[in-house]
């Protein structure tokens, strides 16, 4: 328009960044099915019978966002299955490898360590115990 200054490069870039672009599949990047980020447990979570995780085994509890593994000596470890990259719930366990379907991050379900980026931070370890024959994961501190 005559008499009106052209927008600066910074103004154009800010506007572009703030404008949603159709067709980018943003829903695929959303943390949860309802758009809310899944949370770590905020209260102790009863995951099931003590016998549900055998020695040397790993089990995913998607409803609790927890994975539990039992070492050969019988000790338990639990980790939150909320991906540390973008907060997506991890719903896939392949042997002892957790795979986040949002962006492909992979974690060792026994240690919480990152096996494949884009995540760079390990999963959050949760206190876990057996109470009255039930596996119970508690919120992390």
UniProtKB/TrEMBL annotation:
PANTHER family: CYTOCHROME B-C1 COMPLEX SUBUNIT RIESKE, MITOCHONDRIAL (PTHR10134). Its cofactor is [2Fe-2S] cluster. Pfam families: Rieske (PF00355). The keyword Transferase does not apply. PROSITE patterns: PROKAR_LIPOPROTEIN, RIESKE, TAT. Signal peptide: none annotated. The keyword DNA-binding does not apply. This is Cytochrome bc1 complex Rieske iron-sulfur subunit. Iron-sulfur subunit of the cytochrome bc1 complex, an essential component of the respiratory electron transport chain required for ATP synthesis. The bc1 complex catalyzes the oxidation of menaquinol and the reduction of cytochrome c in the respiratory chain. The bc1 complex operates through a Q-cycle mechanism that couples electron transfer to generation of the proton gradient that drives ATP synthesis. Keywords: 2Fe-2S, Disulfide bond, Iron, Iron-sulfur, Metal-binding, Oxidoreductase. GO terms for cellular component: membrane. One of its GO terms (molecular function) is oxidoreductase activity, acting on paired donors, with incorporation or reduction of molecular oxygen. Residues 39-137 form the Rieske domain.
């Amino acid at each position: 328009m005559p008499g009106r200054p052209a927008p600066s490069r910074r103004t154009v870039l800010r506007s572009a960044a703030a404008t949603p672009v159709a067709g980018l599949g943003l829903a695929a990047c959303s943390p949860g099915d309802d758009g809310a980020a899944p949370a770590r447990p905020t209260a102790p979570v009863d995951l099931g019978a003590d016998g549900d995780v055998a020695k040397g085994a790993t089990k995913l509890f998607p409803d609790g966002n927890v994975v539990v593994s039992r070492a050969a000596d019988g000790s338990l470890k639990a980790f939150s299955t909320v991906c540390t990259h973008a907060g997506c719930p991890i719903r896939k366990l392949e042997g002892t490898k957790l795979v986040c379907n949002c962006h492909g991050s992979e974690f060792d379900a026994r240690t919480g360590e990152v096996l494949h980026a884009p995540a760079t931070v390990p999963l959050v370890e949760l206190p876990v115990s057996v109470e009255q024959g039930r596996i119970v994961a508690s919120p992390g501190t």
